[in-house]
Amino acid sequence: MTEQTTTEHIARSDTAELTTPYTIISSDTHAGLPTELYRDYLATKHHAAFDRFMSEREAQLKAITDLGVRNEDFAANWFETNEEVLRSGWEVDRRDLELDKDGVVGEVIFPDADAVESRTCVPFGAGLGLSGDLDPELGLAGAQAHNRWLAELCKTSPERRRGVALIPITAALDDVLKEIRRIKADGLGAVMIPAMWMNQTPYHDRRYDPVWALCEELELPVVTHSGPADREAYGNHLGIYVTEVTWWPSRPLWFLLWSGVFERFPRLRFGVTEAGCWWVGNLLWFTDRLLLGSRGAAKLAGFEEIKLLPSEYFDRNCFIGASNTKRREIGMRYEIGIGNICWGNDFPHPEGTWPETLNILRKTFSDVPIAETRVMLGEAVADVYGFDLAALKPHAERVGVTPATLGQVNADGSAKDLTTKWAAAAEIGRHWLTGHDTGAAINPNAPAQEV
Amino acid sequence: MTEQTTTEHIARSDTAELTTPYTIISSDTHAGLPTELYRDYLATKHHAAFDRFMSEREAQLKAITDLGVRNEDFAANWFETNEEVLRSGWEVDRRDLELDKDGVVGEVIFPDADAVESRTCVPFGAGLGLSGDLDPELGLAGAQAHNRWLAELCKTSPERRRGVALIPITAALDDVLKEIRRIKADGLGAVMIPAMWMNQTPYHDRRYDPVWALCEELELPVVTHSGPADREAYGNHLGIYVTEVTWWPSRPLWFLLWSGVFERFPRLRFGVTEAGCWWVGNLLWFTDRLLLGSRGAAKLAGFEEIKLLPSEYFDRNCFIGASNTKRREIGMRYEIGIGNICWGNDFPHPEGTWPETLNILRKTFSDVPIAETRVMLGEAVADVYGFDLAALKPHAERVGVTPATLGQVNADGSAKDLTTKWAAAAEIGRHWLTGHDTGAAINPNAPAQEV
């Protein structure tokens, strides 16, 4: 990976490289109807249940307020200030306007446009909170309602959008497979599974093999998204929730890895979204060493299904929807794998980079090699989700974010040295595989920045 | 911390510093009786239950074999090869001999001397597997049996030993407090709590405040130890177990932190044992940023109980029994905090450094400043568990591990430059607090070593 990236970089370090616009694709945006409007996308037989669900909305709001996820003052101000612009959560023209202003030409769309008080939540809890303990029939019905609406949204400027279908895979297998085929035919581009199986069968189980097989066949990446967690254990301690909220959606990754799913389905893609990527280097180091140690066959046994190193499966099968990628994470990119990092703006959630994406990208990427930036801001996510970069080119040219926008060229437009400070880190890469004795290197004289 | 360590280092860089033996204290050893012998330490009323427990031993063995934790061939060879030496798990003279040979003069003793097939497991599952779903009465009875025996062991060469009492804090509060007072009076030096509360009340709950208050008052560090995990979810996939087995015992740390336990009990010490320390830097970065962000009072609310930064509580209240500390972790020490890292040999478990401790320490520490090595190999754990370094001095001199043993001086006995390569990392420290923009720095030209 290191060698390849370096060569690629050198080949591109010409004038065109310095001036060609970035094709920025967000691996993590959100769209959803105001909840009451999902009624029209539900089968009539579920309308009574939907009316009950709507009547329980106050209790749901109280629950997120108690945990501290919702702050009433902040919420009031948020909706007052952003009333118009938040309609971009479901109105496509406003949406494109906001994405353009934010420098983003493509998007991977998750549910729940409103993260402040769930005004656009999917019926029956089947949105970001999708989890194994939903009522199987209603959970699937709610998911379908959103999937139907989302497919309509994605049919506008389809080159810019990949809609992520909600698929509660712990429900009846036949229904699950049928819905996966349906959403593929309807133009959606990925499958979000519950981050937590809860009281259902864990994801190492072979019962899910038909799901992985179908997603591989239909070239639908399988993803989790942060949100679900062990909430009942936290009382009203928001800090516990936030500390763990990245772990739960990441957990299926090692359940699939160690149970041989990536061995049996070598073209399956699995991604973790909005759970950071700061944990990936440690995970790969830890699991690679475990497997290498097991090959010495000491105390432990039981890795017969695993033929490659965990880091090799990760490079081949996995990716990270890294959303608002932090400087610490950028510093870890040679361990994580540059091609595994898919930046995202989390539009239109307040914890994302929107509407300050360009300012934040400038802070985060101004000293990062341009070729690597192109990968993390667009090429990696295009590869995973099958965006057509040629089709996006006119949008990229219109929006016009270039290396100059991100501060990656000198004031006179000439090339900056963006490689020297990272050369050691690039050479070390995954130190446990490259014969180096410890982790990522950085330039200690780099200026203080957002971390 | 950085400044202090540097000053301390310079002050010590004299001849005495180069030749003074290390006082090596293992933060993680194991001792336990062959299970059948615990019968004599149980009250008569529990003998019938104990006989039933012993009769179920085959089923327990099968469970760990199915998960792959036990490999029959390895186990057979292990016991045949080490029959004599494994008696050091409960016979004190052999134990001291093994510790001496391994260079270790002090030890913090956890249960379960045998990690291969649990031949020395504590009755009723109350050993390393201590968890919230034990039968409250039997769990406490089993714990007491071990606590009684361990106190006897520690009365031999008490300056060398700190026994960790097993305290199932999810049991009846009065019984718990009574047992804590009893083990303190009986000479034990710390309290191990269940790593997982299971179906009992999570550790943020105020119901446990009397436990924390008493441990603070009696100067008993509270610790977890790796072992428990969500085993029912793993099927027979050992990789999943090993990948998660460090997370579950670490989890109570952020439950205590965010629920204000370290604010209410400022002298309480809490430690996580044999779960690595590679995750600490990320945790402190993530949680410090969360708290700093909350002070800006944006979307989130609810940190009223937290007055310090998480990293400040960590430095004051927490420590890591880092056992077989890896090079990657050594490279992270300026983020973790040198004084928070307590090395251990995990004696007599096969995954520890025993009986190769000196060779492994030479590989791991040969380029690490001597003053820092002294902290991680002994001074930090002495501070937490109250070892008397003066009383251990004769043992250290007899055992005779010096900086020369670890390759930290030149062949002619003169000082090596052990600081230049780490200077940048030391200066950066916790980059998010020191105005630097990313993580740990290393010397990329360092030779390949065990990672």
Automatic annotation (TrEMBL), chains A, B:
Keywords: Hydrolase, Lyase. The keyword Membrane does not apply. GO terms for biological process: secondary metabolic process. Residues 141-362 form the Amidohydrolase-related domain. It comes from the Bacteria. It holds the Pfam family Amidohydro_2. SUPFAM superfamilies: Metallo-dependent hydrolases. GO terms for molecular function: carboxy-lyase activity; hydrolase activity. One of its GO terms (cellular component) is cytoplasm. This is Amidohydrolase.
